Amino acid sequence: MGQSKKNKLGRAAKEPGLRIRDRDLKALVYAAASNIHGTGLFAARRIEKGEYIGTYHGPRAKRNGVYVLWIYPADGEETGISGRNLLRFLNHARPPNAELDGPDLYARRVIARGREITFDYGPDW
Question: Any residues with CB less than 8 A from the CB of 5 and at least 6 apart, and which?
Answer without folding.
Answer: 12, 13
